Amino acid sequence: MSSMHPTTHLRTSEQSLTFSRQFDAPVAAVVRAHTDPEQFSHWMGPSGTSCRLDRFAAHTGGAFDYTITGNGEWRFFGSYHEVGPTRIVHTWEFAGDPGLATLEVLSFVDLGQNRCRLDGQSLYTTAKHCAETLAFDESGAGMEENFSRLDQLLAHLTS
Protein backbone atom coordinates (compact mmCIF):
# COMPACT_ATOMS: atom_id res chain seq x y z
CA MET A 1 0.00 0.00 0.00
CA SER A 2 1.60 3.28 -1.04
CA SER A 3 1.05 6.62 0.60
CA MET A 4 0.95 10.21 -0.56
CA HIS A 5 3.15 11.00 2.44
CA PRO A 6 5.70 8.25 3.07
CA THR A 7 7.35 7.97 6.45
CA THR A 8 10.97 9.07 6.63
CA HIS A 9 13.37 7.31 9.01
CA LEU A 10 16.78 8.39 10.24
CA ARG A 11 19.15 6.57 12.57
CA THR A 12 20.47 9.29 14.86
CA SER A 13 22.76 7.14 17.04
CA GLU A 14 23.50 3.49 17.68
CA GLN A 15 20.35 3.17 19.76
CA SER A 16 18.00 5.84 18.44
CA LEU A 17 15.87 6.60 15.42
CA THR A 18 13.71 9.48 14.36
CA PHE A 19 10.78 9.26 11.98
CA SER A 20 8.43 11.76 10.44
CA ARG A 21 5.11 11.43 8.60
CA GLN A 22 2.54 13.93 7.32
CA PHE A 23 -1.20 13.35 7.55
CA ASP A 24 -4.06 15.06 5.76
CA ALA A 25 -5.93 15.59 9.03
CA PRO A 26 -5.74 18.05 11.93
CA VAL A 27 -3.52 17.36 14.94
CA ALA A 28 -6.50 16.62 17.21
CA ALA A 29 -7.77 13.88 14.85
CA VAL A 30 -4.36 12.18 14.63
CA VAL A 31 -3.84 12.34 18.41
CA ARG A 32 -7.35 10.94 18.94
CA ALA A 33 -6.53 8.05 16.60
CA HIS A 34 -3.55 7.28 18.88
CA THR A 35 -5.51 7.57 22.14
CA ASP A 36 -9.08 6.40 21.42
CA PRO A 37 -9.27 2.61 21.80
CA GLU A 38 -11.81 2.08 19.01
CA GLN A 39 -9.85 4.18 16.53
CA PHE A 40 -6.47 2.75 17.56
CA SER A 41 -7.65 -0.83 17.04
CA HIS A 42 -8.74 0.02 13.46
CA TRP A 43 -5.30 1.04 12.22
CA MET A 44 -2.70 -0.66 14.39
CA GLY A 45 -1.05 -3.60 12.67
CA PRO A 46 -0.18 -4.49 9.09
CA SER A 47 -2.83 -4.94 6.38
CA GLY A 48 -4.83 -8.12 6.82
CA THR A 49 -4.42 -8.20 10.61
CA SER A 50 -6.61 -7.15 13.49
CA CYS A 51 -5.80 -5.61 16.85
CA ARG A 52 -7.25 -6.98 20.09
CA LEU A 53 -6.97 -4.58 23.00
CA ASP A 54 -6.60 -6.29 26.36
CA ARG A 55 -5.79 -3.00 28.09
CA PHE A 56 -5.78 0.50 26.67
CA ALA A 57 -5.61 3.46 29.03
CA ALA A 58 -4.07 6.22 26.91
CA HIS A 59 -3.53 8.87 29.57
CA THR A 60 -0.53 10.01 31.59
CA GLY A 61 0.23 7.12 33.96
CA GLY A 62 -1.84 4.65 31.90
CA ALA A 63 -0.78 1.49 30.10
CA PHE A 64 -1.58 -0.67 27.10
CA ASP A 65 -1.50 -4.35 26.21
CA TYR A 66 -2.64 -5.41 22.76
CA THR A 67 -2.22 -8.32 20.38
CA ILE A 68 -2.00 -8.13 16.59
CA THR A 69 -3.53 -11.24 15.02
CA GLY A 70 -3.19 -12.48 11.46
CA ASN A 71 -0.95 -15.36 10.36
CA GLY A 72 0.20 -15.46 13.98
CA GLU A 73 -0.08 -13.38 17.12
CA TRP A 74 2.19 -10.55 18.24
CA ARG A 75 1.64 -9.04 21.69
CA PHE A 76 2.84 -5.55 22.63
CA PHE A 77 2.62 -3.75 25.95
CA GLY A 78 3.86 -0.57 27.54
CA SER A 79 3.20 2.49 29.69
CA TYR A 80 2.14 6.05 28.93
CA HIS A 81 4.43 8.56 30.64
CA GLU A 82 2.80 11.65 29.10
CA VAL A 83 -0.31 12.11 26.99
CA GLY A 84 -1.09 15.66 25.94
CA PRO A 85 -2.75 17.50 23.07
CA THR A 86 0.43 17.56 20.94
CA ARG A 87 2.77 15.00 22.54
CA ILE A 88 2.73 11.38 23.67
CA VAL A 89 5.62 9.74 25.54
CA HIS A 90 5.39 6.00 26.07
CA THR A 91 7.39 2.82 26.34
CA TRP A 92 6.57 -0.27 24.34
CA GLU A 93 7.83 -3.81 24.27
CA PHE A 94 7.19 -6.79 22.01
CA ALA A 95 6.43 -9.83 24.18
CA GLY A 96 8.53 -11.97 21.82
CA ASP A 97 11.64 -9.94 22.73
CA PRO A 98 11.48 -9.65 26.52
CA GLY A 99 13.63 -6.94 28.04
CA LEU A 100 13.92 -4.90 24.82
CA ALA A 101 11.77 -1.94 25.80
CA THR A 102 11.67 1.15 23.58
CA LEU A 103 11.06 4.70 24.77
CA GLU A 104 9.16 6.70 22.18
CA VAL A 105 8.30 10.41 22.00
CA LEU A 106 5.60 11.41 19.51
CA SER A 107 5.18 15.10 18.67
CA PHE A 108 2.21 16.26 16.60
CA VAL A 109 2.87 19.46 14.61
CA ASP A 110 0.08 21.57 13.07
CA LEU A 111 0.89 22.36 9.41
CA GLY A 112 -2.26 24.42 8.83
CA GLN A 113 -5.04 23.67 6.35
CA ASN A 114 -6.16 20.61 8.39
CA ARG A 115 -2.80 18.89 7.96
CA CYS A 116 -0.22 17.80 10.50
CA ARG A 117 3.12 16.08 10.86
CA LEU A 118 3.99 13.37 13.35
CA ASP A 119 7.63 13.52 14.47
CA GLY A 120 8.82 10.56 16.49
CA GLN A 121 11.96 9.70 18.35
CA SER A 122 12.62 6.13 19.52
CA LEU A 123 15.34 5.08 21.95
CA TYR A 124 16.10 1.35 21.92
CA THR A 125 17.62 -0.89 24.59
CA THR A 126 20.34 -2.15 22.23
CA ALA A 127 21.97 -1.09 18.95
CA LYS A 128 20.94 -4.44 17.41
CA HIS A 129 17.27 -3.87 18.28
CA CYS A 130 17.49 -0.38 16.77
CA ALA A 131 19.00 -1.70 13.53
CA GLU A 132 16.43 -4.51 13.25
CA THR A 133 13.53 -2.11 13.75
CA LEU A 134 14.92 0.34 11.19
CA ALA A 135 15.36 -2.45 8.60
CA PHE A 136 11.80 -3.69 9.20
CA ASP A 137 10.28 -0.21 8.95
CA GLU A 138 12.32 0.73 5.87
CA SER A 139 11.06 -2.46 4.18
CA GLY A 140 7.61 -0.81 4.16
CA ALA A 141 6.14 -3.49 6.38
CA GLY A 142 5.87 -2.14 9.92
CA MET A 143 5.18 1.51 10.51
CA GLU A 144 4.34 2.38 6.88
CA GLU A 145 1.53 -0.20 6.72
CA ASN A 146 0.13 1.01 10.03
CA PHE A 147 0.22 4.64 8.89
CA SER A 148 -1.42 3.77 5.54
CA ARG A 149 -4.26 2.20 7.51
CA LEU A 150 -4.35 5.33 9.68
CA ASP A 151 -4.64 7.45 6.51
CA GLN A 152 -7.70 5.43 5.51
CA LEU A 153 -9.30 5.82 8.95
CA LEU A 154 -8.64 9.57 9.03
CA ALA A 155 -10.07 10.02 5.51
CA HIS A 156 -13.22 8.21 6.62
CA LEU A 157 -13.52 10.19 9.88
CA THR A 158 -12.83 13.62 8.39
CA SER A 159 -14.94 13.29 5.24
Question: What does this protein look like?
Answer:
It is a single chain. The protein has helices at 27-35, 37-43, 127-138, 142-158; strands at 8-13, 16-23, 50-56, 63-69, 73-83, 87-94, 102-112, 115-124. With 159 residues, the protein is an alpha+beta fold. The chain has a single domain, classed as START domain (Alpha-D-Glucose-1,6-Bisphosphate, Chain A, domain 4). An 8-stranded antiparallel β-sheet has the order 1-2-8-7-6-5-4-3. A hairpin with a 2-residue loop joins strand 7 (102-112) and strand 8 (115-124). It is globular and about 40 Å long. The mean pLDDT is 92.
Explain briefly what this protein structure is.
The chain is α+β, with helices and mostly antiparallel strands and about 160 residues long.
By DSSP (H or I, 4+ residues per run), the number of helices equals 4
- Sketch the topology as an H/E string, one letter per element: EEHHEEEEEEHH
User: What is the CA-CA span between the terminal residues?
Assistant: 21 Å
Main pleated-sheet profile: 8 strands, antiparallel
Helix content: 25-40%
The CATH architecture classification is: 2-Layer Sandwich
List keywords for this structure.
single chain, 159 residues, alpha+beta, Alpha-D-Glucose-1,6-Bisphosphate, Chain A, domain 4, eight-stranded antiparallel beta sheet, 4 helices, 28% helix, globular
Write the layout of secondary structure elements.
Blueprint: E1 8-13, E2 16-23, H1 27-35, H2 37-43, E3 50-56, E4 63-69, E5 73-83, E6 87-94, E7 102-112, E8 115-124, H3 127-138, H4 142-158
Antiparallel strand pairs: 1-2, 2-8, 3-4, 4-5, 5-6, 6-7, 7-8
Helix pairs in contact: 1-2
